[in-house]
Structure formats: structure tokens, C-alpha cells
């Protein structure tokens, strides 16, 4: 049984804590710079005080997860909900969270500190770079490459064989039917850059 401290004590942190417990591991507590939140036992910088503990960054903002993981050299926990479906030859990087009823199909590669949210589908042979967030019910069809720091909104769809670059935000319900190279915010069906 691993002892895990959750960095981030908001709603996302509660979900991550639930996954840790359902996986048979122990939630020691939460670190958050807002000490008024329930269960918080210190600020994020206090992670360096805990030597034999794992950590997971339960913060939805991709750039904040990256900033924290770049700053602190600590042991990271990978949270995979027992109801998720993980195919053969899938790789999942450290610090990543896979939520309830998510599906990751064969030969997908998921980077470090990603979020595969509730009911999301990652199809075969997809590559998700580090710090990607796939929102609830989003679908990433087969052989898609998602760049670092990109956020795919709730119920959005990325069709087969697409490439989505780094630091892109795809709005909820959007459909990505063309490659997206330029960072920015895209929404609609088909997805277009918002200016």
C-alpha cells in the first residue's frame, strides 16, 4: 500500500483522492496554498518535507501542473480508477490520472501528469504528450497526436489521424477535423480558432 499526498484540495483533488482509496492506497492528506480548505496539512512547498510518500498533482490547469512538477523533485503517483479500461501495450506516464469509466485502447501512449477525465475515450495508437487534459466524455479517435499542455474540452471529438499541437484549447463539444498546429483556442463544428 502506497502513502499518497494530493497536491490540490479542490473538487479535482477529491476525485483523485477517491481513486487512490479505491485502488487500495492511502491518502495521507492534501497540500494546497489555500490553507483554509478541508484536509489541507500544508502548502505545496511542504512536499519536500515528506521523504517516503508519493504525490499526485490534482490541479486541472495544465501549466500549473507543469510548473509544480518542474519545481519539485518528488515521487509521483499514477492514479488509475478501477473501472477504467486499459488496453494492451498502453504506456501511462507518472503523475497521470485516469478517471472512472475512461477507456484507453491498445498501443496508446499517455505522457506524464496528464488527466484522462471521466468517461473519456483515447483510441488505439494515440500519443498524448505531457500535461494534456482530456475532459469528461471527450473522444480522441485512433492514431491522433496531442501536443504538450493541450486541453480537449468536454464531449469534444478529435477524428482519426489528426495532429493537435502544443498548448491548444479545444472547446466543449467541438469537432477537430483538421490538423491544428498553432496554439490558441478552437471551438465549434468543425473547430475553428477563436480570435
List keywords for this structure.
globular, Rossmann fold, 22 strands, 195 residues, mainly beta, eight-stranded mixed sheet, 2 helices, UDP N-Acetylglucosamine Acyltransferase, domain 1
Secondary-structure map:
Elements: E1 3-7, H1 11-22, E2 26-31, E3 54-57, H2 62-71, E4 79-80, E5 85-86, E6 91-92, E7 97-98, E8 103-104, E9 109-110, E10 115-116, E11 121-122, E12 127-128, E13 133-134, E14 139-140, E15 145-146, E16 151-152, E17 157-158, E18 163-164, E19 168-170, E20 175-176, E21 184-187, E22 192-193
What's the CATH first level of the largest domain?
A: Mainly Beta
* Main sheet properties: 8 strands, mixed
CATH architecture of the largest domain: 3 Solenoid
Q: Would you give the CATH topology of the largest domain?
A: UDP N-Acetylglucosamine Acyltransferase, domain 1
In CATH, the homologous superfamily of the largest domain goes by the name: Hexapeptide repeat proteins
Whole-number total of structural domains: 2
Average residue pLDDT: 97
Stretches with pLDDT under 50, minimum 5 residues: none
Output the structural class. Answer: mainly beta
SSE pattern: EHEEHEEEEEEEEEEEEEEEEEEE
Fraction in helix: 10-25%
Q: How is the largest sheet built, in terms of strand order?
A: 4-7-10-13-16-19-21-22
Shape by Cα distribution: globular
Could you tell me the radius of gyration in angstroms?
Answer: 16 Å
- Percent strand equals 25-35%
Number of helical segments?
2
**Intertermini distance:** 49 Å
